[in-house]
Amino acid sequence: MQVKPIEWCDTTIRILDQTRLPSEVVFLEVADYVEMAAAIRGMRIRGAPAIGVAAAYGLALGAQAIEARTEEEFLVKLGTISRELASTRPTAINLFWALERMNRAAGEGFALRGSSPKGSTISEIKAVLVEEAKRIERENEEADRRIGRLGAELIEYGFTILTHCNAGALATAGYGTALGVIKAAHEQGKQIKVIACETRPLLQGARLTAWELVEEQIPVTLITDSMAGHFMNRGRIDCVIVGADRIARNGDVANKIGTYSVAVLARENSVPFYVAAPTSTIDLSVKSGAEIPIEERSPEEVTWIGLTRIAPEGVEVANPAFDVTPHQYVSAIITEKGVLKEPYEEGFEGFVLKTISQ
Amino acid sequence: MQVKPIEWCDTTIRILDQTRLPSEVVFLEVADYVEMAAAIRGMRIRGAPAIGVAAAYGLALGAQAIEARTEEEFLVKLGTISRELASTRPTAINLFWALERMNRAAGEGFALRGSSPKGSTISEIKAVLVEEAKRIERENEEADRRIGRLGAELIEYGFTILTHCNAGALATAGYGTALGVIKAAHEQGKQIKVIACETRPLLQGARLTAWELVEEQIPVTLITDSMAGHFMNRGRIDCVIVGADRIARNGDVANKIGTYSVAVLARENSVPFYVAAPTSTIDLSVKSGAEIPIEERSPEEVTWIGLTRIAPEGVEVANPAFDVTPHQYVSAIITEKGVLKEPYEEGFEGFVLKTISQ
After folding, report:
1. A142, A331 Cβ separation under 8 angstroms
2. How far A257 CA sits from the closest chain B CA (Å)?
3. Which helix (H) or strand (E) covers residue A183, if one does?
């Protein structure tokens, strides 16, 4: 079964509410871009590539409702919607990358169609935006497949692979990045096993990764985040694969909080630590991880689980949603364009990537 | 306020049910040793020193109900109760240490009173056992106070101290070991702050440490276990202090799962990593941590939090309750007899400790 976390339905966008998994499989009909912004902010859809797709579809949906008499007016209104969608979450670069690509498509569309009557141009551009969002989703899925194929070459027969958070189909609206590699290795009959860190506070490992892998019938053992080091130290892990929310020019990787700890523990125990991410996750505009903004989320994500309060009233809470793993800890970065090793900057430049401005 | 997790009440033992904290402060009346064994197994009372005290009181309570006509019969029945109490949890050595000490007190008591009539000797030994359990509790508290005083010398003004799990008054039936050091530094006006790891799966950090520190008005920030590395890497932690469930002859430390990860991250970030524990936690009969049995607890501790199931049906779970931190990562071990550094074995031998046999 291929999980489909987001789907364009012409007048609405259908998303799988990931906050309800694994106990309930509930789909939401998103009727406008404001609802999409709320869904991204509330992590009903999450994962760096998936929120790029969600923002693109959200902008396409928002664009359909724009009433404008001139190109300029249309682009101003499109910019307003883009900023609303861009304000939802600060760390994953794919969000800004997708929105910039959508705006560029609109601008280029107007330039191409400059000679035709204004009214029809605007409706044409509305269609262009839907096509561009669909293309982003399709390219995402293709990138995932290539990442899976390239990454699977690093996986040997019988490997036990540790992963943190969820970088699966749910996170990418495709095949998955870290889980794409795992699925590809599994499909090749490599008899792999997965150890999934539960990934506090929002438990994406327990709720989403474990669910995806159980659905795919890939053997998975769930552990708390605090157990990862223990199992590495006991020789039970052959490699680690995680996704990424943003990769700096020097190869530093921002990813779900806890990733840095896993990377340090991996190196200490001579376990390879791989990052699987599409090139849309690479942000050449930031020199190192120190420049990547780290989202701070609400204390209640830590102090409550479901209906259970797990901490006393009055306690202070810190809740950074991401951390930065310095490039020195990263054994390789698996992208759809190839598997890179240090020095990462050279490899990234080889891709002739455009710098993303936020 | 001094938390009192266990209290001898002559015909019963009163324990604070730590599984109900922090939402409810509920005391249980333990009426016999079988109930005490269940309370230890179910972690209603937990923490290595505290389960030593609990086992001692449980044995004293069980002894009162023994009907025996001879010393031999009494000792056989005492042995049966001891084995039941010893079977509750495998890792913390204090449990076995306390039971052995109680049995030795009974044996020595009979030897001393050998000439008096049997009946009165048995009732005298029943009283001896109560006194011995009380002595264990009192010595525990005195050890904690000394650990606090000695450990506080390592804490500088304004330090932010990270701790994992709960090694407070709740864990020791005294003043606390790791939290004893923190409390002593706080009482000395050192303006310290604490970062408490929540300590999945059973959340002793969130539920117990945060609660104790809020009660003591010591500034505390709660984080998930996965955040410890991030805050060390950002230079936010000045030292780590944890307790211990068993320390091997070479200084390897078995403690709550996740401790090893914290220790590795501390060393990677040049943060001192201290272990605070009474000498009753040192087990000279095991050469290294590899010989310490690690308790595996039920999968439901990982897959459920309160009434919320957080993982899909059918997922495998691993749930080791402890891990081993190799001595190389331990900057110092703070005991009531002094602060030790490498080589630990020499320091331990200096204490002329007796080897505990299980």
Report:
1. no
2. 6
3. helix A178-187
List b or e across B218-254, with b for residues whose CB sees 16 or more CB atoms inside 10 angstroms: bebbbbbbbbbbbbbbeebbbbbbbbbbbbbbbbbbb
Task: Flag whether the pTM goes above 0.90.
Answer: yes
Of A201, A225, A316, nearest to B220 by CB-CB distance is A316
Tell me whether residues A308 and B310 touch, CB distance under 8 A. Answer: no
Closest C-alpha among B162, B151, B143, B155 to residue B49: B143
Contact A311 B198 (CB under 8 A): yes
Q: How many angstroms separate the Cα of A70 from the Cα of each of A75, A119, A120?
A: 9, 8, 11
User: CA-nearest residue of chain A to B196?
Assistant: A317
Strands B220-223 and A316-317: parallel
Q: If residue A178 lies in a helix (H) or strand (E), which one and from where to where?
A: helix A178-187
Residues of B assigned a catalytic role: 245
Task: Give the pLDDT confidence of B103-153 residue by residue, as tens digits.
Answer: 999 999 888 876 565 556 899 999 999 999 999 999 999 999 999 999 999
Domains and CATH numbers, chain A: 6-145 (1.20.120.420), 146-357 (3.40.50.10470)
Choosing from A144, A245, A252, A323, which is the catalytic residue? A245
Of A257, A265, A303, the CB nearest to B264: A265
Kindly provide the b/e burial profile for residues A167-177, where b requires at least 16 CB atoms within 10 angstroms of the residue's own CB: bbbbbbbbbbb
